[in-house]
Amino acid sequence: MRIVIAGGGTTGIALARGLLADGHKISLIDRDPQVCDRLFRETGVLTYPGSATNISVLREAGIHRADAAAAMMRLDSDNLAMALLAHSFRVPQIMVKMVDQEFAEAYRLAGATAIVGVTDILISRMQAHIEMPLVRNLMRIGRGEVEVFEVDVPGGSHVSGRTVEEIVALEGFPQSCAFVALRRGEQVETARGKTLVTPDSSVIIICKHSERLDVVAFLVRPEIEPSRA
């Protein structure tokens, strides 16, 4: 894909590096020529010094041929202007970094197809670490009603050694939840009915936000030994 990124700050550069590593063609715009020079020397990413709210600079960066655009600048007003211009060039995918929630509707009207709230992400991750220390890689979908996350399954858990279809049939398993994948070390496999949840593996779950604590508690609950008469 041809992707134009506006903003050479920490998030913009990290996004550029990640997309470049995946084989995409990246153009990055930043007002600071030194930032552009450094990024080009370090990564080979094509950089364009100037304002991403300037049509001439956007054209030079290839916005008219882009498959996607990402507005990652410091100010919402700049990201909004860039999104509107990208929309005018009929860019299919337009992602914006939102600092102030008040801009959400304006971004939608400007044609943004993905709005990433920086504060929302930070707060949700901090909240998850406090409430669910065993959870990693939390991602919220839509307006936050649905979450995808990874949780370690302890070896002594009552679900360890069972298949996915056996686990979801157990009493107490939240009905809105579903297994997405299973990780063992560096290996990740799609979770299917017969997939076995082995000791000390981790599972990737999708569920309603309201049931996230319930499913984590369910998965890490220890095996209860039968009482002896």
Write the layout of secondary structure elements.
Elements: E1 2-6, H1 10-21, E2 25-30, H2 33-43, E3 46-49, H3 55-61, E4 68-71, H4 76-88, E5 93-98, H5 104-109, E6 114-117, H6 118-131, E7 135-141, E8 146-152, H7 164-168, E9 178-184, E10 187-190, E11 202-208, H8 212-220
Parallel strand pairs: 1-2, 1-4, 2-3, 4-5, 5-6
Antiparallel strand pairs: 7-8, 8-11, 9-10, 9-11
Description:
The chain has 229 residues and is an alpha/beta fold. The chain folds into two domains: 2-117, Rossmann fold (3-Layer(aba) Sandwich); 132-220, Regulator of K+ conductance, C-terminal domain (Alpha-Beta Plaits). Helices cover 34% and strands 27% of the residues. The chain has eight helices and eleven strands. The chain has helices at 10-21, 33-43, 55-61, 76-88, 104-109, 118-131, 164-168, 212-220; strands at 2-6, 25-30, 46-49, 68-71, 93-98, 114-117, 135-141, 146-152, 178-184, 187-190, 202-208. Strands 3-2-1-4-5-6 form a six-stranded parallel β-sheet, with helices on both faces. It has a five-stranded antiparallel β-sheet with strand order 7-8-11-9-10. A hairpin with a 4-residue loop joins β7 and β8. The mean pLDDT is 87.
